[in-house]
Description:
Layout: H1 4-22, E1 27-29, H2 37-48, H3 67-77, E2 80-84, H4 95-108, E3 112-113, E4 115-117, H5 124-133, E5 138-142, H6 143-146, H7 156-165, E6 169-172, H8 185-194, E7 200-202, H9 210-219, E8 224-226, H10 233-238, H11 246-251, E9 256-257, H12 269-277, H13 283-297, H14 303-306
Parallel strand pairs: 1-2, 2-3, 4-5, 5-6, 6-7, 7-8, 8-9
Helix pairs in contact: 1-3, 1-12, 5-7
Amino acid sequence: MESAASAGPRDGARVRGFWERIGVPGGIDVHTHFMPQRVLDKVWRYFDSAGELVGGVEWPITYRAEEAERVRLLREEFGVLAFTSMIYPHKPGMAAWLNGWSAGFAARTDGCLHTSTFFPEPGVAAYVQDALEAGTRVFKSHVQVGSYGPGDPLLDPVWGLLAEADVPVVMHCGSGPAPGKYTGPGPIGRVLARHPRLRLIVAHMGMPEYADFLDLAEAYGSVMLDTTMAFTDFSERLAPFPSGELGRLADLGDRVLFGSDFPNIPYPYIHQLEALERLGLGDAWLRAVCHDNAARLFHDDSARLFGPAPGRPSGE
């Protein structure tokens, strides 16, 4: 498995070539992880241990590098125009602190979409409101790691705030790579029934309950799905996407977003893109998924959000 140092330059040319080939100025990756280093170190140690939450499988981290190098890889090597800093708490008392860190990271990092998170705890609605007022563009919820139900009464005002603000939440609510007490389409489906305008982005295409989460996307026009790790060789061995659902995937092409899980992926970045291409759904579908849908979602109406394409002078 390639390290970040060896994978970057060679991989970068292939990634940039992919954007050029499908006709977009670069990618928008809605599922990347940047977090305080001591938290990320703990995440990496858990992956290294092949723990229960990662399905007990070997999971080498391809892009294990310092923060500045990981940003450089995304922006300069891979030509990613915008990305997130997916953070998530596993216990009470963490979320507001993580939000403060993430706000600072977004402020100092070109191309980062200001990301926040939450946990079902007293005061959650207040700090979510604070994050919205501070300009958060996207939230992250991880019901598997957090081991909380999206229907927890403490979260009901949060869903209302997010629906009203039309700010999306990327939620790991599928039961892969290992099921949790609150994973699967049922718990989040009941939330959507109460908050049908909630802008939910289902992480990992809802793996392995792909068909069930496609059902939710068809039932609720506000539901989107991200491609994170889906369709790759790694995931196809563990939870293959049903070939009979490709037609529905094509039809929902305006509500599928590119996500990678960088840096915590056990293969080179280009593999996720090539896995999408080999689905055979065409360049228009790829353009929508890799760039256009996210640009529309995050209102890319000026250079303020994404800035000039990496490597290009601002006057071009």
